[in-house]
Design a protein that fits this description.
With about 270 residues, this protein is mainly α. It has eleven helices and two strands; from the N terminus they run H-H-H-H-H-E-E-H-H-H-H-H-H. It is about 65% helix and about 5% strand. A two-stranded antiparallel ribbon has the order 1-2. Helix 7 packs antiparallel against helix 8.
Protein backbone atom coordinates (compact mmCIF):
# COMPACT_ATOMS: atom_id res chain seq x y z
CA UNK A 1 0.00 0.00 0.00
CA UNK A 2 2.92 2.32 0.67
CA UNK A 3 4.03 1.79 -2.94
CA UNK A 4 1.24 3.93 -4.40
CA UNK A 5 3.00 6.72 -6.28
CA UNK A 6 -0.09 8.83 -6.91
CA UNK A 7 0.31 12.19 -5.22
CA UNK A 8 3.85 11.61 -3.96
CA UNK A 9 6.48 14.21 -4.82
CA UNK A 10 10.17 13.26 -5.04
CA UNK A 11 12.48 16.28 -4.62
CA UNK A 12 15.42 16.36 -7.01
CA UNK A 13 17.28 18.65 -9.40
CA UNK A 14 16.35 17.61 -12.92
CA UNK A 15 15.06 18.90 -16.23
CA UNK A 16 11.57 17.63 -15.48
CA UNK A 17 11.50 19.29 -12.06
CA UNK A 18 12.42 22.64 -13.65
CA UNK A 19 9.86 22.38 -16.47
CA UNK A 20 6.80 24.61 -16.18
CA UNK A 21 3.95 22.63 -14.57
CA UNK A 22 1.47 23.83 -17.21
CA UNK A 23 3.69 22.37 -19.90
CA UNK A 24 3.97 19.12 -17.95
CA UNK A 25 0.19 18.74 -17.86
CA UNK A 26 0.10 19.24 -21.64
CA UNK A 27 2.97 16.77 -22.04
CA UNK A 28 1.09 14.23 -19.95
CA UNK A 29 -1.93 14.42 -22.25
CA UNK A 30 0.30 14.11 -25.32
CA UNK A 31 2.17 11.16 -23.84
CA UNK A 32 -1.12 9.36 -23.16
CA UNK A 33 -2.06 9.93 -26.81
CA UNK A 34 1.35 8.58 -27.87
CA UNK A 35 0.81 5.41 -25.85
CA UNK A 36 -2.36 4.70 -27.84
CA UNK A 37 -0.59 5.38 -31.14
CA UNK A 38 1.66 2.34 -30.68
CA UNK A 39 0.57 -0.63 -32.77
CA UNK A 40 3.55 -2.96 -33.41
CA UNK A 41 6.60 -4.32 -31.62
CA UNK A 42 8.92 -1.52 -32.78
CA UNK A 43 6.58 1.28 -31.71
CA UNK A 44 5.98 -0.35 -28.32
CA UNK A 45 9.72 -0.78 -27.90
CA UNK A 46 10.22 2.91 -28.59
CA UNK A 47 7.43 3.77 -26.15
CA UNK A 48 9.08 1.67 -23.42
CA UNK A 49 12.43 3.32 -24.16
CA UNK A 50 10.83 6.76 -23.85
CA UNK A 51 9.48 5.90 -20.38
CA UNK A 52 12.98 4.85 -19.26
CA UNK A 53 14.38 8.11 -20.64
CA UNK A 54 11.78 10.00 -18.60
CA UNK A 55 12.99 8.21 -15.47
CA UNK A 56 16.57 9.20 -16.31
CA UNK A 57 15.54 12.80 -17.07
CA UNK A 58 13.68 13.07 -13.76
CA UNK A 59 16.60 11.60 -11.80
CA UNK A 60 14.25 9.35 -9.85
CA UNK A 61 15.78 6.04 -8.64
CA UNK A 62 14.48 3.22 -10.81
CA UNK A 63 13.66 1.06 -7.78
CA UNK A 64 11.25 3.75 -6.53
CA UNK A 65 9.53 3.90 -9.91
CA UNK A 66 9.27 0.10 -10.10
CA UNK A 67 7.96 -0.02 -6.54
CA UNK A 68 5.16 2.29 -7.65
CA UNK A 69 4.06 -0.39 -10.14
CA UNK A 70 3.35 -2.99 -7.44
CA UNK A 71 -0.28 -1.93 -6.82
CA UNK A 72 -1.14 -2.48 -10.51
CA UNK A 73 0.46 -5.91 -10.90
CA UNK A 74 -2.94 -7.55 -10.45
CA UNK A 75 -4.39 -5.30 -13.17
CA UNK A 76 -1.49 -6.19 -15.48
CA UNK A 77 -1.95 -9.92 -14.87
CA UNK A 78 -5.72 -9.74 -15.34
CA UNK A 79 -5.32 -7.77 -18.58
CA UNK A 80 -2.75 -10.25 -19.90
CA UNK A 81 -5.00 -13.24 -19.14
CA UNK A 82 -7.98 -11.63 -20.86
CA UNK A 83 -5.97 -10.90 -24.00
CA UNK A 84 -4.34 -14.33 -24.12
CA UNK A 85 -7.57 -16.34 -23.87
CA UNK A 86 -10.06 -14.02 -25.59
CA UNK A 87 -8.07 -12.62 -28.53
CA UNK A 88 -8.60 -14.67 -31.68
CA UNK A 89 -6.41 -14.76 -34.74
CA UNK A 90 -5.05 -16.87 -37.59
CA UNK A 91 -2.10 -18.54 -35.84
CA UNK A 92 -3.29 -21.11 -33.30
CA UNK A 93 -0.57 -22.09 -30.82
CA UNK A 94 -2.53 -24.25 -28.39
CA UNK A 95 -6.01 -25.72 -28.45
CA UNK A 96 -7.78 -27.95 -25.98
CA UNK A 97 -11.56 -28.12 -25.87
CA UNK A 98 -12.73 -24.53 -25.34
CA UNK A 99 -9.25 -23.21 -24.46
CA UNK A 100 -7.53 -21.71 -27.48
CA UNK A 101 -4.39 -19.59 -27.44
CA UNK A 102 -3.36 -17.66 -30.54
CA UNK A 103 -0.12 -15.86 -31.31
CA UNK A 104 -2.17 -12.68 -31.73
CA UNK A 105 -3.38 -13.09 -28.13
CA UNK A 106 0.18 -13.30 -26.81
CA UNK A 107 1.17 -10.20 -28.77
CA UNK A 108 -1.88 -8.34 -27.49
CA UNK A 109 -1.12 -9.33 -23.89
CA UNK A 110 2.48 -8.11 -24.10
CA UNK A 111 1.47 -4.91 -25.85
CA UNK A 112 -1.23 -4.06 -23.32
CA UNK A 113 1.13 -4.70 -20.40
CA UNK A 114 3.71 -2.38 -21.95
CA UNK A 115 1.04 0.25 -22.60
CA UNK A 116 -0.27 0.24 -19.03
CA UNK A 117 3.26 0.24 -17.58
CA UNK A 118 4.42 3.15 -19.72
CA UNK A 119 1.23 5.06 -18.97
CA UNK A 120 1.83 4.81 -15.23
CA UNK A 121 5.55 5.59 -15.47
CA UNK A 122 5.07 8.46 -17.91
CA UNK A 123 2.25 10.19 -16.03
CA UNK A 124 4.02 9.71 -12.69
CA UNK A 125 7.28 11.15 -13.99
CA UNK A 126 5.65 14.12 -15.69
CA UNK A 127 3.27 14.99 -12.86
CA UNK A 128 3.29 13.48 -9.38
CA UNK A 129 6.98 12.65 -8.97
CA UNK A 130 8.30 15.94 -10.33
CA UNK A 131 5.54 18.46 -9.53
CA UNK A 132 4.55 19.77 -6.10
CA UNK A 133 0.82 19.94 -5.26
CA UNK A 134 0.97 23.75 -5.08
CA UNK A 135 2.55 24.02 -8.53
CA UNK A 136 -0.02 21.57 -9.88
CA UNK A 137 -2.85 23.70 -8.46
CA UNK A 138 -1.47 26.85 -10.08
CA UNK A 139 -0.99 25.07 -13.40
CA UNK A 140 -4.53 23.66 -13.45
CA UNK A 141 -5.97 27.06 -12.61
CA UNK A 142 -4.00 28.74 -15.41
CA UNK A 143 -4.97 26.14 -18.00
CA UNK A 144 -8.64 26.31 -17.02
CA UNK A 145 -8.72 30.10 -16.64
CA UNK A 146 -10.74 30.65 -19.88
CA UNK A 147 -13.66 28.92 -18.12
CA UNK A 148 -13.82 31.80 -15.64
CA UNK A 149 -15.68 33.78 -18.29
CA UNK A 150 -18.44 31.18 -17.99
CA UNK A 151 -18.49 31.73 -14.20
CA UNK A 152 -16.90 28.35 -13.53
CA UNK A 153 -15.12 28.30 -10.12
CA UNK A 154 -11.78 27.32 -11.63
CA UNK A 155 -9.66 28.04 -8.55
CA UNK A 156 -11.90 26.01 -6.25
CA UNK A 157 -11.99 23.16 -8.76
CA UNK A 158 -8.19 23.07 -9.05
CA UNK A 159 -7.82 23.25 -5.28
CA UNK A 160 -10.21 20.34 -4.72
CA UNK A 161 -8.43 18.17 -7.29
CA UNK A 162 -5.04 18.85 -5.75
CA UNK A 163 -6.22 18.24 -2.18
CA UNK A 164 -7.81 14.95 -3.26
CA UNK A 165 -4.58 13.95 -5.01
CA UNK A 166 -2.53 14.86 -1.95
CA UNK A 167 -4.83 12.98 0.42
CA UNK A 168 -4.33 9.64 -1.36
CA UNK A 169 -0.90 8.85 0.17
CA UNK A 170 -2.10 10.18 3.54
CA UNK A 171 -5.09 7.83 3.53
CA UNK A 172 -2.86 4.94 2.45
CA UNK A 173 -0.50 5.67 5.33
CA UNK A 174 -3.42 5.91 7.76
CA UNK A 175 -4.83 2.60 6.48
CA UNK A 176 -1.47 0.93 7.02
CA UNK A 177 -1.32 2.22 10.61
CA UNK A 178 -4.85 1.00 11.37
CA UNK A 179 -4.18 -2.44 9.87
CA UNK A 180 -0.96 -2.72 11.86
CA UNK A 181 -2.86 -1.87 15.04
CA UNK A 182 -5.55 -4.42 14.20
CA UNK A 183 -2.91 -7.11 13.57
CA UNK A 184 -1.41 -6.36 16.98
CA UNK A 185 -4.85 -7.12 18.43
CA UNK A 186 -5.00 -10.50 16.70
CA UNK A 187 -6.87 -9.71 13.48
CA UNK A 188 -5.76 -11.87 10.54
CA UNK A 189 -6.05 -10.28 7.08
CA UNK A 190 -4.13 -12.90 5.08
CA UNK A 191 -5.86 -16.22 5.75
CA UNK A 192 -9.33 -17.58 5.21
CA UNK A 193 -11.68 -17.32 2.26
CA UNK A 194 -12.17 -14.18 0.23
CA UNK A 195 -15.36 -13.41 2.16
CA UNK A 196 -13.57 -13.85 5.50
CA UNK A 197 -10.80 -11.47 4.49
CA UNK A 198 -13.38 -8.94 3.26
CA UNK A 199 -15.19 -9.13 6.62
CA UNK A 200 -11.87 -8.60 8.42
CA UNK A 201 -11.50 -5.25 6.64
CA UNK A 202 -14.71 -3.86 8.17
CA UNK A 203 -12.98 -2.86 11.44
CA UNK A 204 -10.47 -0.95 9.29
CA UNK A 205 -13.01 1.06 7.30
CA UNK A 206 -14.79 2.68 10.24
CA UNK A 207 -11.70 4.28 11.88
CA UNK A 208 -10.40 5.16 8.41
CA UNK A 209 -13.56 7.15 7.60
CA UNK A 210 -13.46 8.81 11.01
CA UNK A 211 -9.82 9.78 10.47
CA UNK A 212 -10.55 11.09 6.96
CA UNK A 213 -13.39 13.31 8.21
CA UNK A 214 -11.21 14.56 11.08
CA UNK A 215 -8.44 15.46 8.63
CA UNK A 216 -10.93 17.24 6.37
CA UNK A 217 -12.27 19.20 9.34
CA UNK A 218 -8.78 20.17 10.50
CA UNK A 219 -7.88 21.28 6.98
CA UNK A 220 -11.04 23.38 6.67
CA UNK A 221 -10.36 25.02 10.06
CA UNK A 222 -6.76 25.77 9.08
CA UNK A 223 -7.87 27.35 5.78
CA UNK A 224 -10.48 29.49 7.58
CA UNK A 225 -7.90 30.63 10.17
CA UNK A 226 -5.73 31.80 7.28
CA UNK A 227 -8.66 33.80 5.84
CA UNK A 228 -9.01 31.63 2.76
CA UNK A 229 -12.14 32.59 0.80
CA UNK A 230 -11.49 31.21 -2.66
CA UNK A 231 -9.45 32.51 -5.56
CA UNK A 232 -10.95 35.99 -5.91
CA UNK A 233 -8.35 38.68 -5.26
CA UNK A 234 -5.60 36.21 -4.33
CA UNK A 235 -2.01 36.64 -5.49
CA UNK A 236 0.75 34.06 -5.86
CA UNK A 237 4.17 33.88 -4.33
CA UNK A 238 5.57 32.23 -7.48
CA UNK A 239 4.22 33.44 -10.83
CA UNK A 240 4.44 30.81 -13.57
CA UNK A 241 6.42 31.88 -16.64
CA UNK A 242 7.15 29.79 -19.70
CA UNK A 243 10.79 29.66 -20.77
CA UNK A 244 12.27 28.66 -24.08
CA UNK A 245 13.65 25.47 -22.52
CA UNK A 246 10.10 24.41 -21.59
CA UNK A 247 9.26 23.89 -25.26
CA UNK A 248 12.09 21.38 -25.79
CA UNK A 249 10.27 18.45 -24.11
CA UNK A 250 7.11 19.46 -26.01
CA UNK A 251 8.99 19.13 -29.31
CA UNK A 252 10.47 15.79 -28.20
CA UNK A 253 7.06 14.34 -27.28
CA UNK A 254 5.57 15.49 -30.59
CA UNK A 255 8.55 13.90 -32.37
CA UNK A 256 7.91 10.72 -30.39
CA UNK A 257 4.33 10.66 -31.65
CA UNK A 258 5.52 11.14 -35.23
CA UNK A 259 8.08 8.35 -34.87
CA UNK A 260 5.43 5.98 -33.47
CA UNK A 261 3.14 6.66 -36.44
CA UNK A 262 6.04 6.10 -38.85
CA UNK A 263 6.92 2.78 -37.22
CA UNK A 264 3.29 1.69 -37.42
CA UNK A 265 3.17 2.53 -41.12
CA UNK A 266 6.38 0.59 -41.70
CA UNK A 267 4.42 -2.57 -40.90
CA UNK A 268 7.40 -4.48 -39.46
CA UNK A 269 6.33 -7.45 -37.37
CA UNK A 270 2.86 -8.03 -35.94
CA UNK A 271 0.66 -4.94 -35.97
CA UNK A 272 -2.44 -4.56 -33.81
CA UNK A 273 -5.70 -3.82 -35.60
Amino acid sequence: MKSIALGQYYPAQSILHRTDPRMKIILTVLYIVCSFLSKNILSFGLLLLSSLLLVAAGRIPLKIVLRGLRPVLIVLAFTAILNIFWTKGDHLLFGWQFVQIYAEGLYAAVFMMIRITTLIIGTSMLLTYTTTPIALTDALEDLLSPLKKLHVPVHEFAMMMTIALRFIPLLVEETDKIMTAQKARGVDFSTGSLMDRAKALIPVLIPLFVSAFNRAGDLATAMECRCYHGGEGRTRMHVLKLRGADFIPFILVVALGGALVALNLAGIGYTMK
